[in-house]
């Protein structure tokens, strides 16, 4: 089934070329069903890449989804064409009176930056507070997860001496959870971060439950016991070359805290094409979240979300 996006969005042609069913706004308006309304707060500098990655994951369900994109007003990305932002993105003041079935707060390249020193921290806090009454279920991704854990529960993020960078195996702590429907006992997913939290700090909060951890014992997925907030530190939506591009970027910067991404290149050789070993993880993670925690529990009358 389709994902509903504007015809002119750059991701439209990319997804159609991959035989992913995207629906025009005109066709969607003439179907007698209510789509899920989803909001993506995109904090990544390469917004079009992130848009495409997330839309690819969200498209693999029998649900029609209306996606809105949100940018910060307190900081404007310099890596994305201003016309793209003006055409496809809202600011918070433009959507603050709307309600959404689901929301994704993306990561951001903010390793080693304290939350309060982030240029748009006050605005993100305002949006996270608003989400508690205007969004049925929020999916905090990577930096968004650390921001959410800190804002909602006061859990401090920690700087890691070495970046967690590569493809890691994960242990599922809640095997019966619908979130892991179809998963193997252990699953693979990329990480690209120099930020962490103490697992014990998360486990100490009665409203939080740890869902999965990395093979290194780092938090991978947590959620609230009412399933209204998810905190995910892995990047199951990444493309084949995402880590390669990040590695090349970091090498050009002369960073000494980054090694070749683990379990990524064949024979650990950056000249070889990396295989995708996490595609099923990504499709299942986002599909299960949408189906079991958004679609099946959100009210039919979206105005009843509170």
TrEMBL record:
The record marks 111 as: Important for acyl-CoA specificity. The active site is at 142 (acyl-thioester intermediate), 235 (proton acceptor), 237. It catalyses: L-homoserine + acetyl-CoA = O-acetyl-L-homoserine + CoA. It is found in: Cytoplasm. Substrate binds at residues 163, 192, 249. One of its GO terms (molecular function) is homoserine O-succinyltransferase activity. Pathway: Amino-acid biosynthesis; L-methionine biosynthesis via de novo pathway; O-acetyl-L-homoserine from L-homoserine: step 1/1. Its main location: cytoplasm. It is an enzyme of class 2 (transferase). Keywords: Acyltransferase, Amino-acid biosynthesis, Cytoplasm, Methionine biosynthesis, Transferase. Its EC number is 2.3.1.31. PANTHER family: HOMOSERINE O-SUCCINYLTRANSFERASE (PTHR20919:SF0). Transfers an acetyl group from acetyl-CoA to L-homoserine, forming acetyl-L-homoserine. Belongs to the MetA family. This is Homoserine O-acetyltransferase. It comes from Muricoprocola aceti.
């Amino acid at each position: 089934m389709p994902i509903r996006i504007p015809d002119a969005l750059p991701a439209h042609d990319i997804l159609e070329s991959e035989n992913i069913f995207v629906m025009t706004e005109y066709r969607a308006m003439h179907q007698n069903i209510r789509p899920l309304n989803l909001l993506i707060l995109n904090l990544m500098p390469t917004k079009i890449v992130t848009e495409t990655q997330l839309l690819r994951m969200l498209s693999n369900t029998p649900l029609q989804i209306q996606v809105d994109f949100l940018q910060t007003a307190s900081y404007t990305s310099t890596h994305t064409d201003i016309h793209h932002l003006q055409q496809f993105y809202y600011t918070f003041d433009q959507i603050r009176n709307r309600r959404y079935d689901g929301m994704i707060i993306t990561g951001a390249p903010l390793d080693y930056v304290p939350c309060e020193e982030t240029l748009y921290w006050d605005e993100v806090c305002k949006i996270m507070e608003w989400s508690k009454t205007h969004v049925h279920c929020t999916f905090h991704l990577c930096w968004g997860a650390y921001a959410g854990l800190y804002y909602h529960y006061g859990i401090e993020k920690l700087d890691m001496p070495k970046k967690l960078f590569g493809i890691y195996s994960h242990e599922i702590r809640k095997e019966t959870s619908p979130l892991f429907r179809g998963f193997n006992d252990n699953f693979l997913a990329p990480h690209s971060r120099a930020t962490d939290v103490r697992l014990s700090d998360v486990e100490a909060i009665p409203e939080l439950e740890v869902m999965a951890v990395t093979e290194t014992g780092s938090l991978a997925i947590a959620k609230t016991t009412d399933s209204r907030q998810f905190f995910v530190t892995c990047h199951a939506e990444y493309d084949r070359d995402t880590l390669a591009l990040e590695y090349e970027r970091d090498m050009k910067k002369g960073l000494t805290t980054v090694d070749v991404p683990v379990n990524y290149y064949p024979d650990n050789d950056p000249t070889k094409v990396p295989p995708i070993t996490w595609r099923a993880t990504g499709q299942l993670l986002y599909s299960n979240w949408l189906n079991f925690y958004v679609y099946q529990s959100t009210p039919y009358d979206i105005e009843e979300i509170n």
